[in-house]
Amino acid sequence: MDRRSRNEIPQPPFDRWPRHTFHVEYGFAWYCSAQRALITQTTVNHARREGGLVLCDWIDTALREDGAAIDAAGGLFLLHDFRSLAGYDTETRMVINERIKLRKAGYSRRTIMVVRPTPMWRMAMRVTDLTLAMLGMPPAKLTSDIERAADEVREFVIDHEPPAWLTRT
Predict the structure, then answer these.
(1) Is there a contact between 124 and 131 (Cβ–Cβ < 8 Å)?
(2) Residues 20, 168: contact at Cβ < 8 Å?
(3) For the chain, how many structural domains are there in total?
């Protein structure tokens, strides 16, 4: 099995979910229509600008294509499993925070990020939390415990088929 095919297999606890979409520069994404939730899992070990754009495109497309239902739910629920990441380019963090600033206030009702608890991630989260606060959203929950994070989505219903807009991005 080559490196790419290993990376195209979701890691637990998402390995039993129906496959929605995969991008080589980022990893996986799933959408739960009933809960208006976007769950992502990186497979790369270093976040580059291209992967950050993939993540932003998934979020922006969800907000555009399912906006009325997301608004009715009080915002998009986001869970990002970043456990594969050992680092990121500064430009990646900047691109993501700039795209967050372009979104409407309150676009997310909850954001959870599963990461290694390093000083680098703490610093990145402080910047992101300031950006989220400017849009009237709660700070992201930062944890290294995937099981605790997964408990928050355990009851979510993962659509058997992904929405068409997710597979186009």
Answers:
(1) no
(2) no
(3) 1
Asked whether 2 and 24 are in contact (CB, 8 A), the reply is no
Q: Phi then psi for 151, rounded to 5 degrees?
A: -60, -30
Any idea what the CATH number is for the domain that residue 146 is in? 3.30.750
Task: Please provide the DSSP assignment of 62-124 as one string.
Answer: HHHHSHHHHHHTTSEEEEEE-TT-SEE-HHHHHHHHHHHHHSPTT-EEEEEEE----HHHHHH
Angle between helices 49-65 and 90-102 (to 10 degrees): 20
pLDDT tens for each residue of 18-48: 999 999 999 999 999 999 999 999 999 999 9
How far apart are the C-alpha atoms of 82 and 114, rounded to whole Å? 5
